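Before any further analysis, backbone shapes were mapped to integers, which produced the following:

***
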Amino acid sequence: MRVTGIYLPIAFTSLIQGGAALFAVYLSTRGYSVSETVLPLSLMGVGGLLGSFLGGILSDYIKPRLVGMLLAAMWLFMPLGFNTDNYFFVCGVMLLVGFSLSSLRTIYLAVITSQYTGEEVELRLSHRRLILNLGVAAGSSLIGYVLKYEHTLFSYYFMIVGALTLVSTAFLPNNSPNKEGKQAVEGSHQSRYSDYVFLLLALFLTLLSFGLIPNLYALYLKEDVGLSEVVLGNMFAISGVLIAILQVPMTKWLKNISGKVKSLIGMGLIGVGVGGAQLIQTDWHLYLSTAIWTLGEIVLFVPILKELLKVTPLTNGKTIASYQIAFSASEILAPLLGGALILINYQALWNVVLGSTAISIGITAYLCLKEKNNEYYLNQYRA
């Protein structure tokens, strides 16, 4: 029951998230210009920021089953707003879309990290990432067919999957993380506020590079390198296949390596994979770059949450909220900062990516050495 209760809501929510990835295409079928889609999509990002924060706070004080059901219930009526001709009403709905999806993702993370400890946490987080990626891919494909053949069914897709999400959240574990899960996590807290801030900063710098992939990275490869849309589509397909095949096995293979060391490796791979775009000349160069940054996200995103929970002075929910806020903020800031840099040239963008990667690696390496020194002195004291 515990496993089913966690994974089913994640699966259905990922189907919604995959469909939401094509909101820009849907808005264009409704007659909105490219410039008119900017505000609704930006508000969806703002909603994601709010949802990350509030979802984490709520998970500390309210039972996750109740919160999950309330958030999922929004999808029974929100899709009706997709068909309206009132532009500002659509903008408001998109804000709620971002809020709901981000809050649900945060709640699920809070449930996993409060239900499991040790290596089991990383394994469950790996399962979550696997389900999430498969669900997003399936949702995007389904909505692609809907938009191609009968775009009027767009709203019904979200209402149906939303209803399934609502039913599945009824099976979420019903303990309050504030009463049970919080103690399980806080048992390993070192309350090193500086370590927490440094590690979160290193993650955020890496996410700024990672956030370039679906926009400026792909745009550069299309316009400056001259790769086709088919090749770029293959890039995301290859990434998804690698995650599906390697996410869980690599978590098991690397289980004896320190979480901070794995985070350092993941940050380096993402930075090299994205920053190396300036060296791409052929399809195969792109596929190699894709494999590198995909391996980076496989190695990084699971252990770094566990590491943040080890050193945070905050509650479980607030720590997860900060983790999710880093993702949401990077999705908004990466294209804006990248867009400013390409006014100089793309070379400047890739150099900044490599520079920020070096800073992330330096910060994480410092934390690794600090951890080793602490272990050494602790062993000396015990001896």
Remarks:
- Residues 346-382 form the longest helix (37 residues).
- The domain at 188-382 is CATH 1.20.1250.20 (Growth Hormone; Chain: A;).
- Confidence is low (pLDDT under 50) at residues 176-191.
